[in-house]
Design goal:
Elements lengths: L2 E4 L15 H14 L3 E5 L5 H10 L8 E7 L11 H8 L4 E7 L2 H8 L3 H16 L4 E7 L1 H7 L1 H14 L3 E6 L6 H15 L5 E5 L6 H10 L4 E4 L13 H11 L7 H4 L2 H11 L17 E2 L2 H9 L17 E2 L7 H10 L7 H17 L7 H12 L7 E10 L8 E10 L2 E9 L2 H14 L9 E9 L10 E8 L5 E8 L2 H19 L15
Parallel strand pairs: 1-2, 1-8, 2-3, 3-4, 4-5, 5-6, 6-7, 7-8, 9-10
Antiparallel strand pairs: 11-12, 12-13, 14-15, 15-16
Helix pairs in contact: 1-2, 1-12, 5-7, 6-7, 8-9, 9-10, 13-14, 15-16, 16-18, 17-18
Length: 534
Amino acid sequence: MIKIYDTTLRDGTQAEDISLLADDKVRIARRLDDFGIHYIEGGWPGSNPKDFSFFNKIKEVKLKNARVTAFGSTRKLENQAEYDLNLKAIVESGVQVATIFGKAWDFHVLNALHITLAENLLVIEDSLAFLKQYMAEVFYDAEHFFDGFKNNREYALATLKAAQQGGAHCLVLCDTNGGTLPDEITAIIDTVRQVLGKDVPLGIHVHNDSETAVASSLLAVRHGVTQVQGTINGFGERCGNANLTSIIPNLQIKMGYNIINPEKLSQLASLSRYVDEIANKRHSRHMPFVGRSAFAHKGGIHVSAVQKDPQTYEHIDPEAVGNKRRVLVSDLSGRSNIVYKAREYDLDLGSQEDTEEILRRIKDLEEKGFQFEGAEASFELLVKKTTGSYKPIFTFMGFRVMVNKFRHDRPPLTEATVMIEVGGVIEHTASVGEGPVDALNRALRKALEKFYPELKKVKLEDYKVRILSSDKGTSSVTRVLIESKDDQGNKWGTVGVSTNIIEASWQALVDGIEYKYMRKGSDDAISHSHPDYQ
């Protein structure tokens, strides 16, 4: 059986933009366990207080599927194993599985450790033998194994034999620099199995510096490896580690290995987003299997074919990994895209003439710089407006934004005023903010909240600005994409475009409010102040 060994909490945190508190690591460990991961590498208990705290906290957590692993290095030459602080910390961590790494590349032994090749073999065997007395399982990470094999084949193999003699339960072959190509990796694995025997358990640990970590890991399994190491979303030092969110579905769906309960596999996309959320990283929409764009269709010909049979442009069922099919609306759209999106949102397109008008308006707006791929809420509003199925719940009367700076050593003071009319009542409000868009957002909400208190539960989640015509300098056309979120976790994107960034932001802000009230089932809809929408 193939076992998945997750090292997100240790190797993944070596990425320059990843930092996890002990409590964060516990939360991720719970989620990995629930998903069905076999081994969770918690960290290096002898290296820092954060990892020491994690191992204390995880003792109180009852895991259902996973075994937590403590990581460390072989003992120092001058220490006896029982007195080596690193090895003692692993034992005292309270876990039943340990993974230690040792040098498999003679270059590192001589130039990094500054010990003899024979001494390195001794500390490998000695360290594993010591840990085996206290652990249910002990794994050996042969660091830089593939580089070491290419430089000195006999010595690299000797380090594995030393680990065998020390009692290692699995020999993990590591491409630590990430520079070995898949065909090289499989050829070396075949040699290792010929020398050590086909029954010796092997693992694979690949870094992604050559953009081949996933491919190398999958091929390693084809060549007899039974433990695959990697991280969720490919977190890791430099270019990252082998990405488990790609490895797991490929192994299970494409290669036929029974690794994860299919019901749990359908939570893969959610797991991927969860880990990014805890790590405070924006989820990449372009990741295979779990990214928001993984099953997104834009070209009209593609959409027409997918409507007939999804297999025409999808390699798996998106729901198998917890993702979903998306059809994008853009200037490449055909009628099929519009019809598909309308069905997705349960929208009445009206007559065929209405559909053609929607398509025409989308292409016209995109010519001006609008983009509906990341702003599907604005698309839904556009459909409602074109078919005449909405009514305004407020009337826009005007806004003003003022930025004043009085002292060089203090930030500017920004104030916005908004005037609207709701049910015959004119509301004129003002608010200050960190900048013009923040002030405008606050003033608009202040004006609306007494009429629509649910707006208090909506917050601006993300704000992006893109200059579309940089050749025009400060008079360039600007596109603003806003993502909003409510207290139920629902998110929606809206868009605005103008040569004036405040006007573009206003369009996207108002669309975000419109969408919230339209989706909550109100009979009312909301007006839009931009002339292109009238």
